[in-house]
Amino acid sequence: xVLTAGRSDTTRARAALENLCQTYWPPLYAYVRRRGYSSxxxxxxxxxxxxxxxxxxxxxxxxxxxxxxxxxxxxSMNHFLSDEWDKARAQKRGGGKVISLDFQSAETRLGEIPxxxxxxxxxxxxxxxxxxxxxxxxxxxxxxxAQGKGTLxxxxxxxxxxxxxxxxxxxxxxxxxxxxxxxxxxxxxxxQRYRTLLRETIADTVSGPDEVEDELRYLFRTLAGG
Length: 226
What we know:
Layout lengths: L1 H4 L5 H24 L4 H18 L12 H15 L1 H5 L13 H8 L9 H27 L3 H7 L12 H8 L3 H24 L8 H12 L3
């Protein structure tokens, strides 16, 4: 998605860039709020930031050697805050709206991020990790439903977060009218596909395949509060 968004000459690139904005705005909103801006200013700022991003197709400037897309996003927001926000807030409130963002939900989720000893940068990283994992989870569910396996996914999805031996196989087997062996196979496949999608999604936000494992470790350290 990031590479597609970096192509400045296609309709597909525009759509990919808009998709990036829709996917990765919550970490930036969390960052801005933790920088001390009011919810109203943070909403205007986030919309104005993406208006600039879409207008200038700034993602096209992200060369592979410049590293993780996560870092580019945060650096771009910092530049925007220091150099362009004063001009942006001089415009009529709401005039920079370019995509529909659920700020009410974001404000609620912001309360889930620990405030004590949590810097704006840590708030951004924490929300980035959660956003990426939620994206993978959503994609996995859509795949299962497209295959007519929505009921199976809904029954097994809690097994994604548990240890390999934590799933209540007997209970799931009764619920799904399957054998325990069949449930274990289904859980294994679900977890395997989740890991594959997770690595594919991470690969789309870093410079190359050699950075995927490091970024994966970073994500889980962040979620663990490290």
